Amino acid sequence: MENVGTKSLENKVCLITGAARGIGRAITEKLAAQGGVVYANDRLVEEMGEWVKECADKYATEIIPVSCDICDFQAVKQMIIQIKKERGHIDVLVNNAGIVTYEYLGMIDFEKLRQMFEVNVIAMINLIQLVSRLMTRQKSGSIINMASIVGVKGAKGQLAYSATKGAVVSVTRSAAKELAEHQIRVNAVAPGMVATDRFLHSIENRFEDKLNSVGFGRYALPEDIADAILFFASDESKYITGQVLGVDGGFIL
């Protein structure tokens, strides 16, 4: 058990989507380490299993797995009602859940495109709408959206995915303008290439040449992204809103 010094998220209620694997898991552990009470949402809660208990015990906090498809609006509403009933408020929302495809313009599968917009954009907007209502009442809160460097600069062979992440950037900035008067911060983190299992298994020589374009000469680790999320979740960013923070090791330069 770790319980040393002041923790930046002590007793803050945090909701993270897509929490079972990769970046989502790293975010869950990072916020829990700083004292956050974490509701870890995913369709694959069975994959959380033992590590959730071990992490909660290690950092002397609570991690509550919540099984829910974020595209099911009724299920999402019930999830928010559950959290409100149990805690009374939500301090941090991390919209991490997302899907990706790698397709050139002429090969775009429009059914996959619709699904990507449903998960990456529409479900995110629904969560922002529901959670911001709670945050408006408490006159505080931090909403963090998962964008991508390709949503800022575009990418060959990723037109569809880039479009969804470009939308995330626009939603972030527009929501920040609307919610600022309620003291709610809305920011986004835009990762470059991150060494998750899903990414490494999908490389197929697709990105090996691009690694030479990364200033630091390595892929990001999920923990690198989680560090940026923690910054926006904590009061270290209390006067920052509407920003998109690139975490790409210099790839965008």
Helix content estimate: 40-55%
CATH architecture: 3-Layer(aba) Sandwich
The dominant shape is globular
Radius of gyration: 17 Å
> Which percent band covers the strand fraction?
15-25%
**Name given to the CATH homologous superfamily:** NAD(P)-binding Rossmann-like Domain
Q: What is the number of helices?
A: 8
CATH topology: Rossmann fold
Number of strands: 7
Protein name: SDR family NAD(P)-dependent oxidoreductase
Pfam families: adh_short_C2
Domain Ketoreductase: 12-202
Family: Belongs to the short-chain dehydrogenases/reductases (SDR) family.
Task: Write up what this structure looks like.
- With 253 residues, this protein is an alpha/beta fold.
- The chain has a single domain (13-247), classed as Rossmann fold.
- 43% of the residues lie in helices and 15% in strands.
- The chain contains eight helices and seven strands.
- The protein has a seven-stranded parallel sheet, with helices on both faces.
- α1 (22-33) links the parallel β1 and β2 (37-42).
- It is globular and about 50 Å long.
- The mean pLDDT is 91.
